[in-house]
Write a structure and sequence with these properties.
Two copies of one chain form a homodimer. By secondary structure, chain A is of the alpha/beta class. In chain A, 28% of the residues lie in helices and 22% in strands. In chain A, strands 12-11-10-13-15-14 form a six-stranded mixed sheet, with helices on both faces. A six-stranded mixed sheet of chain A has the order 26-25-16-17-18-27, with helices on both faces. The longest helix of chain A has 25 residues. Chain A starts with a strand and ends in a 24-residue tail after the last helix. The C terminus of chain A is likely disordered.
Chain lengths: 671, 671
């Protein structure tokens, strides 16, 4: 009889011969098979479950499976009950070889198992976090051979988990105060969280199975945190909060100004956003039944000003040419050095910035959307007060930032407001009657549906948000209310009383109020400036790339999710593209942060990516201004929009009258 | 004519041929010659001075030196004036080769030049600190090719200093807030302090030449700091302060008890000693005309309880068997994580502990005294409340701790006090008259010298310190006042009125007062217990080492410096040894800390050393008690003292009477 046996693991297909008595977990490790374990083979964690694949035996040339592994013992039976593991699953660490077997590793037992999100190229994003949990049994102190508790913990991690082979294992100093009590509380059985296989960042008595991390997106307006299980990639809690820096200035440049004008102003803003994040992390931890001190790792993104302020850097240099970043590369720092009281040795990883106006948020968007992974010429726009724009494919990637101003966010608009309950977010204008119907945030019904009045009774209709103003203006253009030059055609006032003289110009009354919601000529001008800047940025990159069209457009950011692609094209915000190739990516920056949180190889990828992206500075590009002026028209003064023309009936071009001024035929409107 | 030339450097003798025009600094680097530079060859720092050795040419086979290097230019002339560099010295970085030369590198231009202290084996301790200064000129930001200021600084360090070749250079996060202003304040010329060639820990505008570090010795009673120039090893300022933990308990065990009895007590003691050290570092920095924020590195030693409390670890486990250290190995932590606001990225290096009772102070003593470097069987005792004892040579080293108690420090002694002005520190007793003469701390004159009364008028004579009581008792034994059993011979009262009945025992009136200073029978008992414990510890190690004698005895610690070796032997504190081989090492622990501060290779040496030392636990050694009892006699009950007998006339052994009790012949003493 042979004293060894064949093991075949599926789905990997790896196989090898092992001495009888070898357990399947040991065999898997020896073959490099991806089989999980936290407890290190002690029938405690139940992670290493495998299915002895009887049916598959013949296929792999094995005759029979009967009694080819040891029968289940007591420890395994207890673990089954506690973990809810049913036959035919066995614990790999308990199933010792008695003959040839095929062992199937189910997805939930694979270390690199979960998919955070498929990137557009369908490549799966595996979980491979920087911090892992390791259960160990530590030798007790012996008066005859004195050694430190820490050295014996490190020794246990080395012998039981083969850690510290390449780089010596070390412990964060913040771990020291609780080290001895934790070891004794766990009766010398503890779970250590180890970062990069070489630094102990947290320690708990007994077996600990959940390793938590947080992906954080610091926006100018909101700060968002996703608490994530580092072993599964699953989001276990999420929350957002208003960025408290708003009290120092609504937009980025006003915060930079605040810092310039007020000594200590940058430090105030740093303290504010750090305190906000600390609260937010405590909140998501509580929501997941945990404590902020359980958070082992944070990945963070933000535009350059947010990124710098969070790291304690005065953003003043970002306020003027040459827009010098203090640091561009990814940066790691102890969370406690940034005033975050998380796990003792928790680290924070800030994604890289691309340029003075193109931040870690843009790098995260690139990581999440993966334009560099395919051949499609992809345009990604992340719309905010500054639009961050990326263009390229696997061959080359360009980036720029365009000063769109806050109009897309509802600022500078007469009835503009944030996207909050009561804000109009969608608009349709009948091309014949010129009557509008609309929807408001938080209400399903359209304004001409039954029940709309009842549904909006509590909040009222208070204003119009960014996506609402874009749809309104696009619909006004499609209905012929305004011309390609953006001027409201006073002649149309004869067709609808909604078009009214408003001083020397005309306006369109969208809702009767109170309050009345109007789209004024000034509102249209503000949007024209913003969309002209956005288009010009995209166009500048297309020129640099020497392409006339793009294959795909991604609208990133919360705002992008609410814009209808066709309306965006009608307005000329983006170049022409097949409508089904214009997609909203939602919070792609946040997704990028989550990816970097759970996969260390993809941290290296985003770092390479950020370094490789060619930056184009709009502020000094001579052609930017020309594109900007040309892009003021609807949808665009010169660029062709064949895809758009196929999709919607564009109004026939009218000759513009005399610029902003309304025609002579003024009707007696309200004063 | 040759287009290259021969360069010979002395005293190293390294030589090589280089293209004409190569400067001597570049040639030195290429040959691995130890030639210093902070400014990187810009004729600013003046460190790379060399003497073109004309006289030595023939010897090295070179015919003539005339015009064999470029003539001095303007930059060099300016530097000469500023730095006071006189001919025949030239700046290596400015002297370009025109022909064969011999260049002598003077000691002050060598990187590894200064000697901290010669160890007993005469091996010099070179300066090779973990932190070095590097002056660089950083490229300015360019809007066309955006990159972070930090990345350009790192790039400058890489290209101008070849840093970051093995491990990527990184910056401490605490550097970020001031990075941009510093670069601009220095007009893109800055000096970076780089740790281990891979981490930027501080940055100053312009050229900075002094790198400061601190060696710290945390004693139970005092905390001492030596501010040191990391490039020269020179101490530039020193200060000490009372350890504020004294208010929680005088000795180590009472502090451990305080922590056991009071929740949060350990944290209180941690905060107290950290605040004390912060003040002390600010004080030494100010004394050197610098700021605490200029301190780049700290090396720290202390006994295990002090070491643990400083690192924020509750010492409770050190209070009972198995006396488990939280950590034994050397430990590095950011200074700011230990509440020290020093240079942004300053690190603290704690030397390793050896066992639960043998701390980093003992490891430092071993490093400073180097018993492992020679063949002599060396006994090192560091006397304190616990004596830490080392025995061995290059082959093997043993260590133990012995519970001597605080008697050697003047506690438990009737007139005992700390070694402060007014304390008797030296004593001589005339063998005929039995009269004593003595000296007090801070006064040169002996008590029978003219001017003694005047000199002590201000402080008075207030008590007796540790070294004073030891000399007093040794002298009493030599004068026959007490027997080998330590009992004061009441019969001697007939010879001198200084010997007086004192209850049921006798005492010796050392000073007439007020206050009267007496050596009582209880005082002698306390010292007997202490010296018995000390001897027993040493003897235990000698047994384990299987040696009967030692070749050398080192008395470490401030106390050791004040003890006369012969008196120590008369008392039997230490085993017999040739008197000239008994030396005081002063604050050897502090010296060890200074060595570890300035030489990184010797950090590895002390770590190896601490790991290799065999620890003997006196608390569980059966023979310790036997040695202890035998060692109660003067000089010792059984051990031979041939060296001592040759050096002093020991009194003839008298039969002891009835233990502690005075003889019947009681005189009417005071009540």
């Amino acid at each position: 009889m042979a004293d060894d046996a064949l093991v075949v693991f599926t789905p990997s297909g790896r196989r090898g011969r092992f001495p009888l008595g070898t357990d399947l977990l040991a065999a898997a490790r020896s073959l490099g098979v991806d089989l999980d374990s936290v407890c290190g083979g002690r029938a405690i964690c139940g992670r290493c479950r495998v299915r002895i694949g009887e049916g598959a035996f013949a296929k792999h040339g094995i005759a029979s499976a009967a009694d080819h592994v040891d029968a289940e013992g007591e420890a395994e039976a207890r673990c089954r009950v506690r973990r809810g593991i049913d036959p035919p699953f066995r614990l790999g660490c308990q199933a010792a070889l008695r003959g040839d077997v095929v062992a199937d590793v189910p997805p939930e037992a694979q270390v690199h198992r979960q998919v955070v999100r498929k990137r557009p190229d369908e490549r799966e994003i595996a979980v491979d976090p920087v911090v892992r949990l390791h259960y160990v049994e530590v030798e007790e102190p012996d008066i005859a051979t004195p050694s430190g508790d820490l050295e014996r913990l490190i020794e246990a991690l080395a012998t039981q988990w083969k850690l510290g082979e390449l780089t010596a294992l070390e412990a964060d100093s913040a771990l020291l105060p609780t080290l001895q009590t934790t070891l004794r509380a766990g009766d010398w059985k503890v779970t250590a969280a180890v970062r990069e296989g070489r630094r102990i960042v947290a320690l708990w008595p007994g077996l600990r199975e959940r390793a938590l991390g947080a992906a954080v997106d610091i926006g100018s307006t909101t700060v968002a945190a996703h608490l994530t299980d580092l072993a599964t990639g699953e989001v276990v809690a999420a929350a957002g909060a208003m960025n408290p820096q708003i009290r120092f200035g609504e937009d980025l440049m006003s915060r930079v100004s605040y810092s310039m004008m007020n000594p200590g102003g940058a430090a105030e803003m740093t303290a504010a956003v750090r305190a906000c994040l600390a609260d937010l992390l405590a909140e998501v931890a509580a929501e997941a039944g945990a404590d902020a001190s359980d958070i082992l790792e944070v990945a963070i993104v933000g535009n350059p000003v947010m990124h710098h302020l969070f790291l304690g850097i005065d953003p003043v240099e970002l306020g003027g040419a040459p827009f010098a970043l203090a640091l561009a590369d990814a940066f790691e720092a102890p969370a406690r050095s940034l005033d975050l009281a998380l796990a003792p040795g928790a680290m924070l990883y800030a994604l890289p910035c691309i340029a003075g106006h193109v931040g870690a948020d843009a790098a995260a968007v690139a990581l999440a959307e993966g334009p560099h992974l395919g051949d499609e010429m992809t345009l990604i726009v992340d719309v905010g007060t500054n639009a961050e724009i990326l263009l390229g494919n696997r061959g080359r990637l360009l980036a720029c930032s365009s000063p769109t101003g806050p109009a897309f966010e509802g600022a500078q608009i007469s009835a503009g407001q944030r996207a909050a309950p009561g804000a109009i977010e969608r608009v349709r204008i009948d091309r014949e009657t010129l009557e509008a119907r609309y929807r408001v945030v938080g209400v399903e019904a359209w304004s001409d549906d039954a029940g709309f009045a009842e549904a909006t009774r509590r909040t009222g209709i208070t204003g119009i948000c960014g996506s609402g103003i874009i749809e309104a203006i696009a619909e006004m253009f499609l209905a012929g209310i305004l011309g390609a030059d953006g001027v409201i055609d006073g002649a149309m006032a004869a067709r609808s009383e909604r078009i009214e003289a408003d001083g020397r110009t005309f306006s369109y009354r969208l809702a009767d109020g109170p309050p009345e919601i109007r789209v004024t000529q000034n509102d249209i001008r503000a949007i024209q400036l913003a969309k002209g800047a956005l288009y010009a940025g995209a166009r500048l990159l297309m020129d640099r790339m020497a392409v006339e069209t793009v294959d795909r457009v991604v609208l990133a950011g919360a705002f992008g999710s609410h814009i209808d692609p066709l309306h965006a094209m009608v307005l000329g915000m983006i170049p022409d593209c097949a409508p089904d190739k214009v997609t909203a990516a939602g919070n792609a920056a946040g997704t990028g942060a989550r990816i970097a949180l759970v996969n260390r190889a993809l941290r290296r990828e985003v770092e390479e990516l950020a370094r490789g992206i060619e930056k184009v500075e709009t502020a000094v590009a001579a052609d930017f201004q020309a594109h900007f002026v040309a892009a003021m028209a609807f949808p665009h003064g010169t660029a062709p929009y064949p895809n758009l023309a196929r999709a919607v009936r564009l109004p026939e071009a009218k000759a513009s009258a005399t610029g902003d001024r309304p025609r002579r035929r003024r009707r007696g409107g309200r004063t």
